[in-house]
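Methods — Computational structure assignment.
A single polypeptide chain was analysed. Its primary sequence is given first, followed by the predicted tertiary structure written as structure tokens.
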Amino acid sequence: MIDSFPISLHPDPTSGLFPVSFEQVEAIWSEWPRMFFEPDGSFVWVADDESWQLDGVVYDRDDHVLRVDLTGVYSAAPLEQLVRTLGWPEANLRVERVQDGQFVDFAEFLRGLAS
């Protein structure tokens, strides 16, 4: 687990937008226990034992998710569950570390969480 810091999830620039709509993400995420999803795209998802929490906002354009801003106490398993609904690993996904403006591949970001 890593302390809270902001990130943004983006599709690979060659892919355009995520291969899912806002409505698809809302329908899936709203079914998850302890996930609270608002119609404006803001959400909070927290573990039963409060060992991790993800807060964020889903942004869309042209019937596709454009990006997802996140902050929270990250844990690899729930973060991976969340991004699978965005099309990963079939769709390439990048993580923008907002504080330093650097982009890393999502798989690389996950490896960093595990170490």
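Note: The chain has a mean pLDDT of 92.
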